Amino acid sequence: MDLEEFIKNEKEAKKLYYIYADNSYLRNKFKEKFIEKFVPEAVRDFNLSYVNPGDEYLKRLSNAVQTPPMGAEKRFIISHFTEDDSLNQSEQERQLKIFKNIDQSASLLFLTANKVDKRKKFYLSLKKIAEYQEFETPRYRDLDQWIIARFRENNKKIDSRSVKMLENMFSNKLEILNSEIEKVVTRYPDQEKISYYDLKNIISREKFLEDEEIFHFLDLIGDKKTDQALLTLKEMLNKGVYPLYLLTMLKNQIELLMQVKFYSQYTQDNYKIAKKIGKHPYPVKKSLQRCRNFTQKELEKILDEILRANYHFLTGYYPDQNTALEMIIIKSIAY
């Protein structure tokens, strides 16, 4: 069940919601939907408060959940923990006591980026007193559907090629994806079908061009096309693409090829391999084709060259990084 469906099925606000989501977009979306459904606009000024981490957090939270509403039946409190916020064991025990003593006229929404260890006492106690829910960032086919749904909400249709392009560019960074989708929808308000070329005209043009060129460059390396790879490399460097960034992209690509090549011994199903290594099926499918050009030993040698170059780049060993990168590419393709 996704978060919007969960909120829709809630008839009335419970005393305590403990919501885990590893993605800030999902946490903020839950907060927005929760307020929209349960907190009347007329009472938000006096009966909706936010208690976030900081000095005397637990004391402030305790006071908030014990404060009666003003001129309304219910008071709402929202507390939001990011990846950098945490409580030690003693503080968690105090937090549980606060949760147990929430006033009958209050409703607390606790959002967190930190997953609860279900083997520990805290979780077992929490389940008895809270509506506990986990919402994972969508991946693979779920991410496909998430992108399609975002367009559908705005009465738009998008083709599969465009979906794959968005995933390749932004992975499952939902906040960025949502922002880019909003740009597209705003740019084409009266257009029902959005094509790949429509996206090219509006989505972060610099990033689009950079990523498209880099993926093409990596394809040339995977296909061992030395001359074309070096020509593309020079074009990107002339446009100001940072050499260390290119080196990092190349490292990521070689590591992916190594993983895919290893699992290709057991299956040629890109979906199964993608699930095993935690990647999207589309780049895995392309890597299945590319990795045939290399042995595992060749890939290991290339990765060694890249890691050595990365160290030299960072320590200033190479005064001319552009030339050094060209030599690495030639070595990589030569294996």
Automatic annotation (TrEMBL):
Keywords: DNA replication, DNA-directed DNA polymerase, Nucleotidyltransferase, Transferase. It catalyses: DNA(n) + a 2'-deoxyribonucleoside 5'-triphosphate = DNA(n+1) + diphosphate. It is an enzyme of class 2 (transferase). InterPro entries: DNA_pol3_clamp-load_cplx_C, DNA_pol3_delta-like_C, DNA_pol3_delta_N, DNA_polIII_delta, P-loop_NTPase. Its EC number is 2.7.7.7. Residues 17-130 form the DNA polymerase III delta N-terminal domain. It holds the Pfam family DNA_pol3_delta_C. Residues 212-331 form the DNA polymerase III delta subunit-like C-terminal domain. GO terms for molecular function: DNA binding; DNA-directed DNA polymerase activity. Belongs to the DNA polymerase HolA subunit family. This is DNA polymerase III subunit delta. It comes from Halanaerobium saccharolyticum.
